[in-house]
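Lab notes, practical 5.
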Amino acid sequence: MNVMMNETTRTARSGLAEELRISVARLSRRLRAQVGSDLSVTQFSALAVLERHGEMTPSELAEHEHVKPPSMTRTVAALEAARLVARRPHATDRRQVVLAVTEPGRALLGEHRRRKEAWLAMRLAELTEEERAALERAVPILERLSRS
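Output from the prediction step:
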């Protein structure tokens, strides 16, 4: 009986994992569609990390984003070409540079966030009070999952 319950639990968990993965991916695509940006997901993520955490070296940014330095080099080059990030001399190591978000980069991130949140607020308004309450309770859980 215990073996059967474990198999049922495992199947239920994998079903939840699949449903959650599909739903989160679909919601993420819908949110990205609201901004119609020329930035890739990787570029947008790197820009947002720099805004949130402050100046970083390209290596630190690559490590934070879990990508290899050559990939981050291409990402940073595209962001620099769009004038969304700028290189500055490192404060203590002249061999290195740090990356910082420019004012146009901050403005772009702010506009993207406003559009996404406006779309999401309209969708949330269409839900019942109970559905919104369930989502409110789920937010800390989803946040914990996203950080693991």
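Observations recorded by the TA: Residues 2-33 form the longest helix (32 residues). The mean pLDDT is 89.
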